[in-house]
Amino acid sequence: MPRRPRPADARPARVSIVLADWCPHCVPLSDVRARRLARQLRVPYRRLDIERRAEVRVADRIVRAHGDWAPDYLIPQVFLEWTDGRVDHLFTGFSEQVARTRQGWTDLFRSAWLRRLRAGGPR
After folding, report:
1. Peptide bond before 28: cis, by omega within 30 degrees of 0?
2. How does DSSP classify residue 29?
3. Each residue's pLDDT tens digit, 79-123
4. pTM score of the predicted model
5. Which whole-number Å values give the CA distances from 7 to 33, 41, 82, 116, 122, in the listed order?
6. Range of the structural domain that residue 78 is part of
7. Residue 62 sits in a domain of what CATH number?
8. Is residue 3 part of a domain?
9. Domain count of the chain?
10. Is 53 a member of any domain?
11. Is 106 inside a domain boundary?
């Protein structure tokens, strides 16, 4: 989980997910959970599909700058964008079985970091 210090007034601004509809780690598993995360944080949700020409450019930019970049990068990747312009990479799906990606989401939702963030405490 992200641990670097932030300005006291920075707040979550958006959850973005990079995915593809054909990916079993992405749809519906990660798509549903990323939407849930956005609802819990009360921020907009942005879905970037790497199979859509207009979206892949934005997806590639955010993954290259903040995620697990490789020419053929793993999906899904989930990002939390902040009001101060920073972006935290929260999650990359696993190339193993879908159950491993599901467990990664479970771990994120149970994390002390997310509990503090939802409560408005230190990030």
Report:
1. yes
2. I
3. 999 999 999 999 999 988 999 999 999 999 999 999 999 988 655
4. 0.91
5. 27, 18, 10, 16, 10
6. 12-119
7. 3.40.30.10
8. no
9. 1
10. yes
11. yes
